[in-house]
Structure formats: C-alpha cells, structure tokens
Write a structure and sequence with these properties.
About 80% of the residues lie in helices and about 0% in strands. By secondary structure, it is mainly alpha-helical. The protein is flat and about 60 Å long. The relative contact order is 0.14. Keywords: Membrane, Transmembrane, Transmembrane helix.
C-alpha cells in the first residue's frame, strides 16, 4: 500500500473516531480541519494511485463529512437563479 493510501485511511479513521464523541458545536471546527487536510490528501491519493482510487476516497470522505456537503448543496441551490413563472 502506498503512503497516500495509508494516510487517507488514517484520515478516515480519525474522522470516524472523533465523530463518536459529543461536541458542543456539532464537530464543525473539526470538520473544517478535516476538510483542509483532506482536499490536498485526496489530490495526492488521486495523483499517486489513479482516478478510480481517488473517487473511492472522495466518496468515503463525503460519507464521513456529509453535513458540509449537504449545506453546500443547499447554498448552491439557493444561489441558482429561479425560472420565471409562465
């Protein structure tokens, strides 16, 4: 196993372990740190092991950090221009 894959698996384990503990801010501060670490790590995994492994890790990361993804989708939908009524 390559170093990027090992670090990616450690990232996933750390995110899951911290998610098990209670938090006053619903883990948002930790989510920001994990996103900041995860994006370059995802690029490294993809560059070293190819796009298929990169997509697997991206899906796993989206599964762990699903609420930031959900809020991003809601924010993008709210910014989309509305179609005029007929």
């Amino acid at each position: 196993m390559s170093l990027p894959v090992i670090l990616g698996l450690l990232w996933l384990i750390a995110a899951n372990v911290v998610a098990m503990f209670p938090s006053r801010d619903n883990h948002w501060r930790f989510a920001y740190v994990m996103i900041a670490l995860g994006i370059p790590l995802l690029g490294w995994v993809t560059w070293a092991n190819g796009p298929l492994i990169g997509l697997v890790f991206m899906a796993a990361g989206c599964s762990v950090l699903r609420w930031p993804i959900i809020y991003l989708g809601r924010w993008l939908r709210a910014r989309r221009p509305q179609e005029p009524a007929e």
